[in-house]
C-alpha cells in the first residue's frame, strides 16, 4: 500500500482538521510535538503522511499530486483556481467573502461607478464585479490589513473575509454586499481520486458520518 499524503493549511484550520481526524481514528502523534522542526509527519500503521503548508499553496500541492488530499479555505480554492476536486465541506472556519466599505459607498455600487476595489483576492473580486454584477472596477491587490484601504483613501471598497465583523466595526466600516459564504473544504487530486478511490471514499464516508 502506498502512502496517502495530506496537505493542511497552517494554523487554526490544521488544528481543527487534526481534531476531526482524531475523532475518526486517524492520529498523528509526531505532529503534536511543538518543538519539532520536522516538516512531514507519518502514520506508519495507516500509511498516511501529513504536511503543513501556507494556505494558498495547498491547492498547488494537490493539483501537482505532491499531496493526494488537501484542506483549505473556500476563499483559497476560489482564488487559486487549481485543477482539483472539491469533495467535502468540513463545516468549520465559517465566514463570508464580502464587499465592505463606508456606508457612503453604497450609491457607487448601486450606480455601477468605476470604483477602486482593494483586496487580497483579485480573482474572486474580478469574478464578482465583472461576471456577477457586470460592473467595471479597478482591482488593487494588497497582501493584508485590507481594511486600511478605504480608511486611507486607496480604494472606495474592499473585498475581504468577514468573520466576527469586529475589524470592520472598530474601523467604522460595514458589509455592503455578500460575495459568498466560506468554510474549510477538502480537495483531492483528480488522479489520486481514481487511483486511490477506495481509500478516499472510505475516508469521506467516515468524515461525513462524523460531521
Ligand atoms: C482577516 C480578514 C479581516 C479579518 C476579519 O484578516 O482579512 O481583516 O480577518 O475577521 P473579523 O471579521 O473577525 O474581524 P487576518 O487577521 O487573517 O489578517 P490580514 O489582515 O493580514 O489578512
UniProtKB/TrEMBL annotation:
Which molecular function term from Gene Ontology is one that the record holds? ATP phosphoribosyltransferase activity
Q: Pfam families attached here?
A: HisG
Q: What is its EC number?
A: 2.4.2.17
Q: Where is the ATP phosphoribosyltransferase catalytic domain?
A: 56-208
Q: Does the keyword Nucleotide-binding apply?
A: yes
Record-level GO cellular component terms: cytoplasm
The UniProt catalytic activity note for this protein reads: 1-(5-phospho-beta-D-ribosyl)-ATP + diphosphate = 5-phospho-alpha-D-ribose 1-diphosphate + ATP
- Sorted alphabetically, which keywords does the UniProt record give? Amino-acid biosynthesis, ATP-binding, Cytoplasm, Glycosyltransferase, Histidine biosynthesis, Nucleotide-binding, Transferase
Please give the InterPro entries that the UniProt record associates with this protein: ATP_PRibTrfase_cat, ATP_PRibTrfase_CS, ATP_PRibTrfase_HisG, ATP_PRibTrfase_HisG_short
Q: Does the keyword Membrane apply?
A: no
Which NCBIfam families does the annotation name? hisG (TIGR00070)
Q: By its UniProt entry, which PANTHER family does this protein fall under?
A: ATP PHOSPHORIBOSYLTRANSFERASE, ATP PHOSPHORIBOSYLTRANSFERASE ATP-PRTASE
Family stated for the protein in its record: Belongs to the ATP phosphoribosyltransferase family. Short subfamily.
State the domain notes: Lacks the C-terminal regulatory region which is replaced by HisZ.
Please identify the protein, giving its name as recorded.
ATP phosphoribosyltransferase
From the broadest rank down, the organism's phylogenetic lineage runs: Bacteria, Bacillati, Bacillota, Clostridia, Lachnospirales
Amino acid at each position: 500500500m502506498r502512502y496517502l499524503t495530506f496537505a493542511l493549511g497552517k494554523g487554526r484550520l490544521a488544528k481543527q482538521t487534526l481534531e476531526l481526524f482524531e475523532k475518526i481514528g486517524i492520529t498523528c502523534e509526531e505532529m503534536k510535538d511543538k518543538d519539532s522542526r520536522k516538516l512531514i509527519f507519518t502514520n506508519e500503521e495507516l500509511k498516511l503522511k501529513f504536511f503543513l503548508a501556507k494556505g494558498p499553496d495547498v491547492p498547488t500541492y494537490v493539483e501537482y499530486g505532491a499531496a493526494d488530499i488537501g484542506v483549505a479555505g473556500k476563499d483559497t480554492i476560489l482564488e487559486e483556481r487549481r485543477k482539483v476536486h472539491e469533495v467535502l465541506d468540513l463545516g468549520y472556519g465559517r465566514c463570508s467573502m464580502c464587499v465592505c466599505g463606508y456606508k457612503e459607498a453604497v450609491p457607487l455600487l448601486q450606480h455601477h461607478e468605476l470604483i477602486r476595489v482593494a483586496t487580497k483576492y483579485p480573482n474572486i473580486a474580478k469574478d464578482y464585479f465583472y461576471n456577477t454584477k457586470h460592473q467595471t472596477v479597478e482591482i488593487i491587490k494588497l497582501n493584508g490589513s485590507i481594511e486600511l484601504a478605504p480608511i486611507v483613501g486607496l480604494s472606495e471598497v474592499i473585498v475581504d473575509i468577514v468573520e466576527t465583523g469586529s475589524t470592520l466595526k472598530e474601523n467604522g466600516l460595514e458589509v455592503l454586499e455578500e460575495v459568498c459564504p466560506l468554510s474549510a473544504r477538502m480537495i483531492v487530486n483528480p488522479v489520486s481520486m481514481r487511483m486511490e478511490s477506495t481509500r478516499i471514499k472510505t475516508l469521506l464516508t467516515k468524515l461525513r458520518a462524523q460531521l
